[in-house]
Amino acid sequence: MKILLPYLRLMHPFTSLAVAIVTVIIAISSNPPFDLHRLFLIGSVMLTVQFSIGVSNDVLDQRYDSKAKPWKPIPSKKVGKRTALIIFASLVICSFASCSILGWVPLGIMLFGLCCGMAYNLGLKRTLFSWLPLSLAVPTILVWVGAINENTPNALYWSYPLGLLLGPALNLANQLAGAEEAAHSGERSLMHFLGVVSGRRVAVGLFVLVSAFMPTVVWINDLQVKVATVGSVATSLFIVVFAVLAEFDHRLVLWPLAILIASVQGVFFLSAIQ
To answer: Which of 7, 66, 172, 229 is the most buried (most CB within 10 A)?
Structure first.
């Protein structure tokens, strides 16, 4: 098990599993009653996609991680770069093969989501536009699940304007924990432009804006405003916890909490527009 641990870390298991689980929950809320076989397939496709993005992140960040995070699998020589590339290629092939079972439209949408992750890893991560891939990728999960379930109401595409607010909030929450180390390696993302204190406060403000605008978007489309409002109220409780922990600089828990906030918002938004 100890030998396999570096390979597991290479795939960023927490974030990958969290995104896969959230995607399955979204799939359930999108089209109940649910098919266990389809849910398993949806989860496994998302998991392999996220694993591949995690591996490519470490491969492309080798030069920076050797300065700031020498303990990571590739800089520490626990996993060779060639081996990591083979793992990456295998994961991408598995993703495409599995997703093709779900249909060509879901496959195309999945490819777009993968491209968002790769764009982040290939350079946007270290720029002022580090938030953009997440702003596009998060709504794409909703659209992908909708395409699989053949349930894509017009209101679903409002998730992209909301994503322009949610993406920067998630990006800031993700980068808070290792902000100083990333700056040491030469990273100059949105977090470093704002600074740690301003960054965490901007993240809170953006989460609040998403919760505030969500019922408005649902109302514009003449759908279930009460459901969206309940979702906004429920999310606000988590946002308060996020804000308090951020002020006390408990950075390690902010990323998991940010995923939870975005997940609750996504599930309630989807439920409100059905």
So the answer is: 172
